[in-house]
Specification:
It is a single chain. By secondary structure, the protein is α/β, with parallel strands linked by helices. The chain has two domains: 4-279 and 345-495, no CATH class; 290-336. It has 14 helices and 14 strands. Helix 9 runs antiparallel to helix 10 (309-324). The longest helix is centred in the middle third of the chain and has 16 residues, at 309-324. It is globular, with a radius of gyration of 22 Å.
Length: 498
């Protein structure tokens, strides 16, 4: 039995809240565990590297050798010869707010120490793949240059060069454009059919027919998600891995509420056309795109009655103007539900959480050949990059939130639970977190113990202490969500750094 998914210990480390460090983000001092190795240099100033190291210590990994030359914190997770897949969030090269990418993508300064400790566990024999499938329009080269990952990986390739070790940075996308023909064959992926195991399977026939990605034409979607099959095309390098290390961003998401470890796995699908994000129309018509009985819904219904592209485009513009320009206050919108956003960006999205849990099921149970099993097939670890987070209208239009934290552990759900609490949100109001918490078969739902360098964040059991006030970071929830994500008994406004 793979025990990594059953370890609910979580560590939260507070550190600097910026990335003003020098590439390639060397250790700040000569740590004893790297003594005599290729990584024995030091930079003089790198609190983020030290924070990652402190997180591994807080989790008591390889506790007996801590602080010594033979300390190898990831040795129980990784053995020489393994293939390790590191999954950051590399969603896009620019944010919708016109600011830099710090609020939306994982920064290279967090990934560098992870690579060093993975290489130490591999003892120079094995492979590291750092990969993601960004949005269809994203420029992978720009993304990985702006977050400094490309020059960092380039340096590490030279540092650890040997005949028995390789490190790769991969764009996992195959189909990248909306207009291009979706191919039947994808050399970068293996098609996996979850069938009745899919969380989409309980949907009605009408609901299933409305599944879509972001496009009006969902003819391909109905081929891969229907009453007989639920297929995803997963990156081959991901499936071939022995260990997965997630390094998501701490940020909000206007469809999912938050995008942390569970949601981050959307980036292992090589063809976005396989990933339903919503169901067209309101709930009364088998959809979850927007609520019933609102002005936006009437406009959308009118749009779909027209086949002319220019007419449709004009009506969609009206729908967005109704939301963004008419000037209804939040109170009026909430009370009378007159105007709501399009494309499933609200608390009633009943699709995206199902897809995220499908992909987590694949991570846990899919073999290297894509065949689903009944026992865990790979080990997992995760560290959330919350040095600078994203709040409000994430994942692409969020505001920078200097938070200065890292959250890590083995169990992705437990880590996401701690991070959600830390953001100041009630996980029971977020469908992804609420439904993941009910799936004990996926991630063991025992006590979640939190260790931290902030005394108030040391908690014996996060689940048992749910209603005990926990100082939080007071993140702003997405505007389209018309329910308050915050807990009613909050105690952490003083921790917000403006």
């Amino acid at each position: 039995m793979n025990e990594s998914f059953y370890d609910n210990h979580v560590a939260i480390i507070r550190t600097i809240a910026h990335y003003d460090l020098e590439v390639p983000f060397h250790p700040p001092e000569a740590y004893p565990e790297f003594s005599g190795s290729k990584n024995s240099g030091k930079s003089g100033f790198n609190p983020i590297y030290d924070a990652v190291r402190s997180l591994l210590m807080a989790l008591e990994l390889d506790k007996d050798h801590m602080g010594r030359r033979n300390w190898n914190p990831l040795a129980e997770l990784i053995v020489p010869g393994n293939k390790v897949f590191i999954k950051p969030n590399l969603v896009r090269e620019n944010s919708g707010t016109g600011r830099d990418v710090n609020a939306i993508v994982t920064h290279a300064s967090v990934i560098r120490p992870i690579v060093d400790y993975v290489h130490r566990a591999l003892e120079g024999r094995g492979e590291i793949v750092i990969g993601d499938a960004p949005t269809a329009e994203a420029d992978f080269h720009l993304v990985t240059n702006r977050n400094l990952l490309q020059p960092t990986v380039g340096y590490l390739k030279g540092l650890y060069r040997s005949a028995t070790f390789d490190i790769k940075l991969m764009d996992l996308r195959y189909a990248r454009g909306v207009e291009e023909e979706f191919p039947e064959y994808d050399p970068l992926g293996i098609e996996i059919d979850l069938g009745r195991q899919s969380f989409l399977d309980p949907l009605t026939d009408r609901e299933m027919e409305n599944l879509t990605y972001l496009y009006e034409d969902n003819s391909f979607m109905t081929k891969v998600h229907n009453r007989l099959a639920h297929k995803y095309r997963i990156a081959r390098d991901f499936l071939e891995s022995d260990v997965v290390i997630g390094v998501p961003k701490l940020k909000t998401h206007f469809k999912a509420g938050v995008t942390l470890n569970l949601k981050n796995l959307v980036g292992i699908v090589t063809n976005k056309a396989y990933v339903p994000h919503l169901r067209k129309g309101p709930p009364s018509r088998g959809g979850d795109e927007l609520p019933d009985r609102c002005l936006t819904e009437r406009i959308v219904s009118a749009v779909r009655q027209h086949k002319n592209d220019w007419t449709r485009a004009g009506l969609y513009l009206c729908a967005n103007l109704a939301r963004d320009r008419i000037g209804f206050t939040r109170r009026v919108e909430t009370r009378y539900r007159l105007v709501r956003p399009l494309r499933g960006c609200w608390e009633g999205n009943d699709t995206i959480w199902r897809v995220a849990l499908d992909l987590n099921r694949i991570m846990v149970f899919a073999g290297k050949d894509g065949v689903m099993g009944s026992v865990p097939r790979r080990k997992a670890f995760c560290i959330i990059d919350g040095i600078v987070g994203g709040e409000k209208n994430g994942p692409l239009h969020g505001l920078e939130r200097p938070a200065g934290i890292l959250v890590g552990g083995h169990n992705p759900y437990a880590v996401d639970l701690a991070a959600t609490r830390l953001m100041g949100f009630d996980h029971e109001k977020i469908p992804l977190m609420k439904n993941a918490g009910r799936e004990g078969w996926l991630f063991h739902m025992g006590p979640v113990a939190v260790a931290s360098n902030v005394p108030e964040w040391n908690i014996v059991d996060l689940c048992a202490d749910y209603y005990v006030p926990m100082p939080d970071l007071d993140f702003l929830e997405p505007d389209p969500w018309h329910i308050r994500l915050r807990k009613t008994d909050r105690a952490g406004r003083g921790l917000r750094q403006e």
